[in-house]
Amino acid sequence: MIQGYRTGLTVALIAVLIGIAAIGGFASQDRLLQDARFGLSGLTPTGQTVLVEIDSRSIAEIGVWPWPRRLHAQVLDRLVAMGAADVAFDIDFSSASNPEDDALFTAALERAGGYTWLGAFQQRTIADARLSLPLPQFLAHASPATVNVLLDSQGLVSQFVTGLPVDGSVIPSFATALSGRQPASGALAVGIDYGIDATAIPRFSFIDVLNGRIDPAALQGRDVIVGATAVELRDLFQAPRFGMMPGPVVQVLATETLAQDRALRDFGLVPSAVGLALLALAMAALRRRLSIWQLGAFGLVAMFAWEGIAILVYLQYAAVIETALFLFGVPVLYVFELISEMSSLISQRRQAQLRLAYLATHDAVTGTLSRTGLVEALPELGSAGTIILLRLRRLDTVRGTLGSEVSDAVLAHLGRQLGDNAPGVLAYVAQDTFAICHPGASSPEALAALENDILSRVARLQRVGPHVIMIDLRLAVATGANRGDDLLRQAEIALLGGDSINRFEAGQAEAIEQRRRLDTELHQAIGRQEMHLVYQPQVDLASGQMVGAEALMRWTHPRHGPVSPTQFIPLAEETGYIAELGRWALMMACRECAAWPSPIRVAVNVSPAQLRLTDVLGDVRNALEQSGLAPERLDVELTEGTFVEELAETQALMGELRRMGVLVSLDDFGTGYSALSYLTTLPLDKIKIDQSFVKQIGRPADDALLHAIIDLCRRLDKKTLAEGIETEEQAQQLAAWGCQIGQGYLFGRPADGALIGQMLTRGERVGAGRA
């Protein structure tokens, strides 16, 4: 529609320009342009036609005016005697003077032998047209020739009449008579080529010819036009290029025009009108390919090219094209394109701003309010309200298997289902999560009704093209005072619950806030020196000697006292701070172990989150270099979850660690995703058997399984370490089955590094020797 409107305006604009040109609106500009083309022609007169001019000097020397016709007779005799070819008088001989002078001129015409032309002209009045001819006695010995010229709309002499029909015959013009040529088109009016230099026409003063002061060779064989050029005689015309020009000079140029075959053909404004229309079509076609400035450059080139064509056509074919319409039309079209482009850009910017304003408060996929839009709309609920969150579970699986297009279609369809005839405000507030808001607090019974209404409105099977998607919803509800976005936050806290329908309870907010404060203080714990390591001894079950110690992280809060690792370790893994904690623990363990008097090993646990977030290999290398600990005294413990998430990367890391001399252990073997293939495929030095197996010692089935694991590790040349040993009986049984190392409260609780150093200094046996 916009394109059609634009095209219609372009057509109308071209039509207006053509109309202006048709009524002469660009005539002055066209005349200036054509004058410039005339100036480029470089044409000179042939010299065959010369002008004998009745100039001011001749009038002054003769002293009277009008001249007696005997002077014209004498000049004619002089010209004939000098060998002039044809002589044409651009003088009015239509009325008689005194009989003696007329007789003398008649005699001179008779002596010229019929090679004389006398000017005839047609005068138009309001009533009719009257032809003025020389006197019959003159025409008995000479021929009439018309000197009529035509003026254009600006009053300039642009054409001459090639002949006047009279009584079945045609009186020729001076130009056709003297040049002996007719225009090829046979036209009665022919354009004069002012590209021929009028200043180069051979001109001789009447008085000089009369008194014989002219070399006969200058006139021999030439055609001569005799006429008045004196300003006071007022035989003047306004002409292109040269301005005011005497009539006889116009006649000479007309004669030269035919003699040089330069009769001008005026094509008018039609070519420019067609060219302008074609250019408009070209600009419309190039509009999408070129920038507005490139389009302007294209128009400028077109203007120069069109004027160049006009110059070429004039020089080669003596044809005139009015180019002002084109030269003025192109800038007008460009300005129109510029205005249209600016209007389009303004419109697009306005639409983009509206779109951005819409997207600032709405979700692009579902078309519902976004979280920002919902927060802005919450005050409309009043002083109290109810918010229900709906989380689509397992939609990530759909997104991963079928693509985001399918999951987006499910969300959009669900948004329509929830929005159809549903009271309250609907919004999409987080990934795969909708919110429905109602004014006023709701009772438990009302909440149950709302929940049932929502669940009944949502189809569990969503069809998207050929796919049928089963969705599962989890609901969370918060109701009460409406202050800012508190209700939304409370509903989000409730959504963390594991039930299908979860309602916000007051204690949940406190738990979240406490978790937030704990995270903030955890990030400051290392800098405040609140973190420290303790070490649990690892004992050789045969000798009772301490052969190693596992480093365990502890946090002593200045206000709350000791914080359980089960609280801050998972939090650090969720927030990514485990990378910093793990790097610190590795460095501290290596430094303290290096200071112990006995070369036992220190075991440091590396979590799967550390592998994802930091360069563990670089951290180990840096800790060894900074502490001076021998690589073989460091034991890096990896959990089974590490292998499940990043098996290839973990294998590569284990290989690099072992090449450095560091030992690699599998921690908590027998839990989670344990697979016996790990024992054969992974480059492990030691297997740590989880304490859950140790606690079951004494049960035949569990004993058989534990014995088999230890025996298998022995056959694969991998050491075994049993965790959670609390009794002598457990230690003795494990040693009997071939387990080499033990760890548990039987051998000591975790102690700080200084105490471990003291135990090693005293050489204490942690457990009794066993056979």
What keyword list fits this structure?
771 residues; alpha/beta; elongated; 7-stranded mixed sheet
- Strand sequence of the main sheet, in spatial order? 25-26-28-29-30-31-32-33
CA radius of gyration is 57 Å
Strand content: 15-25%
- What's the total count of β strands? 34
Mean pLDDT: 88
The biggest sheet amounts to: 8 strands, mixed, barrel
Assembly form of the protein: single chain
Low-confidence stretches: none
Secondary-structure class:
alpha/beta
Helix content: 40-55%
Separation, N- and C-terminal Cα atoms? 98 Å
Brief overview:
With 771 residues, the protein is an alpha/beta fold. The protein is 48% helix and 22% strand.
Can you give a write-up of this model?
- This protein is of the alpha/beta class and 771 residues long.
- Helix content is 48%, strand content 22%.
- It is built from 29 helices and 34 strands.
- α1 (2-22) packs antiparallel against α12, α10 runs parallel beside α12 (324-361) and α20 (578-595) runs parallel beside α22 (616-627).
- The relative contact order is 0.06.
- The model has no long low-confidence stretch (mean pLDDT 88).
